[in-house]
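Box 3.1. Reading complex inputs
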Amino acid sequence: MHELKMKYQGKKMAPAFNAFHTFLYSPNETTHAGGTHVKGADDLKRTMNTVIMALVPILLFSMFNAGYQHFSAINGFPENFSVMEHFLTWDNFWIGIVKVLPLVVVSYGIGLIVEFIFAVIKGHEVEEGYLVTGMLVPLIVPVDTPLWMLAVAVVFGVVIGKEVFGGTGMNILNPALTIRAFLFFAYPTWMSGDKVWVHGAVDLAGGPDAISGETVLGFLAQNKEFQYSVSDMFFGFIPGSVGETSAFLCLLGGLFLIFSKIASWRIMVSAVIGSLVMGLVFNQVVELGWIGETSKFYGLMSFDFWKHLIVGGLAFGIVYMATDPVTGAQTNRGKWIYGFLIGFISVMIRVFNPAYPEGVFLAILLMNVFAPTIDHYVIRGNVNRRMKRLKNAVILPKDSDGKAEELKAETV
Amino acid sequence: MSKDIRIKKGLNINLVGAAEQTISKAVLSNVYALNLNDFHGITPKMLVKEGAEVKAGEALFYNKNYEDMQFVSPVSGELIEIERGARRRILTLKILADKEQQHVEHGSFDAANASSAEIKAFLLKGGCWPFVKQRPYDIVANPDATPKAIFVSAYVTAPLAANPDFALQGKEKELQAALSALGKLTPGKVHVSVGKTSNSPLASLAGIELHKVSGPHPAGLVGTQINKIDPINKGEVVWTVSPQDLVIIGELLLTGKFNAERVVALAGSSVKAPKYYKTKIGTEIATFLYASGVNGENFRVINGDVLTGSKSSQDGYLGFYNNTVTAIPEGDDYEFFGWNKPIFNKVSSTRALTFSWLQPKKKYDLTTNTNGEHRAFVVTGQYESVFPMDIFPMQLLKACMVKDLDEMEQLGLYEVAPEDFSLTEFICISKQPHQQIIREGLDLLYQEIG
């Protein structure tokens, strides 16, 4: 392997080989003469890998849930639900293997091919950013998304969302959400409605065995009753995009990422606060009787404010999407504002969106665009502090020319 | 009067091989050398020719932009080699030392009754001026400027660096002479900082503003202290001097001789018996490196500490400003699956399957491996956690990279030196060369605005 690397050094395909090589071995590079002579243990691969580790439980859960929702929609939900008997079964997992795993494979396969091509063309190393994106993408699409559709979206997302800006670290929008948004606007029938969230619902639609797979938010948007308990919603035994359902596992993943200091706790906490505030506002609107039960917003507005966190993609979005360091706010104070607005706007869009009762990805993409603006004002605060200090600057004359006053007038 | 400074943000890097607190006398070196890279931004003009005999303290060259600023020979002997690099730039001057050392005698100097111009002239002539550095730009101070304050940090937090409390013992007289004289060059204060619990010889001096500093690295860097005590604004100038250089300045003032003697810490895990040596500026590092013994063959010798020092070699020479020499193993080998397995033996600022947070007191044996490849900036918020100044580090780095002069100014480039970014460079996940970026930014700003 080391010899191969040497052999291809300086050639066009070098980045491709190096990518394989650094996957197996951490490089033998030593610090250069002018900088620090020792360096910290972490590199970008480790950072990305930590996020992937936090996603693995969710992927496994989603594979079981794909089957559980499928069979429950056909046979009805089991009474006396037990996790071992009804959820962690081979049948359920098999549906996961057939339906969820191909999404992962396509997402990684297509995405990495695009990354490799760009790395070879531009002659830089293959960057790690896609390792996380490729894992996120299958988790935020409906389970029956056709694979070709996913492949098209991935190519679009990686090229337009990331590579045109210069690759990992340079992009403005979260690539995973760009892919999701592309799917949403290009193939809306596959991305919303009551048929896409459970495997098989689309194929069986219209026939005698038609099954429904409405999400909790879908029920609420139509002011309908639903049968899921709070614990179902919290632990994730509900229909929805592949990996978004379990708020419990998102919580665990979030805690792990905060503990390992990989993701920003500021964004997560402020996003939770933001969504609770918006939810409370809507609850108050209902409380005060400003809208009646006939209003089409009644279902979502009267939904207990804290329950917004455990249905839909909010928990998943807050933990894994909003905390993307590249597209989020970069200053600590900016992160508070950025996170708060994500939570706030997510719930707002969720309630007011007539066609599709979910708004997390739109809210995050919107805030991605505004993150540099938020940072700009935070940084101006620092600059203004410095400017204020400058007014009291002690600018002393040079021995040769006593032009201090002039210099001061010029700089203030 | 003393004011306490407590730094919370930072990271102490505990390394194996701290110098034991005993001083040995290093063997006398045959050849001494001045490395001109130590004097950043100075264009040298030679005063003596190859083959000339010089005395200790005799000028070898001067600053092309400031003719009175002379750089002197640490020893008496024969200038045997002027090593030149590309475009005939002078790299090093080598002097073959005499058996009997002869000094240039300037006569003792009565600083108490001298004007600031006279003090400056004496230091310039005596070759001690280059020890005075200025901020902004982190270069040898411009003697024409008047600093608003002078800062001396005698609190050291850098990994394995020489402890001034120990190395400067018994030098109170010289330190006092130097600080009294320098104090007359500024209408402001002379700020001296020592460790909170130290018995520093600087703590009892007169005419200074004493600060007691505590906290993790980079609390000991003078830049951090300036930012907390009296931050630099655009147009202002402060001077900084290292305590070990004050001793040389003090001795020149008291005796009229340039005495290049200095206590140097030899440290690092590649040294068998790390300890302090008394030697001279420009000495061959080999004169004391092998006296302590080395582990293995493949190690790197560093002039300075592991974060800010410059790469030297086993047959290199002690730098003009350095009082620490570190030797650590080279890490030029591959590590299988190094990026995803748990790490117990390296320092990390995260807890991503790295476990240095479990044992904050443990000493580590780090190599020069980069532990990853160079990438674009990705992760945010990491630098801020170890960067105590009121500056946005990543934004400033980016401003330097895109050469945006306005941004560089506004974000506080005047306040920093490359060494202030050594810790952020250490923890940088994208393995960016922070110090180099800042150095280039400072050079650009100096060139454009001066």
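In summary: Residues 53 and 290 of chain B are 30 Å apart (CA to CA).
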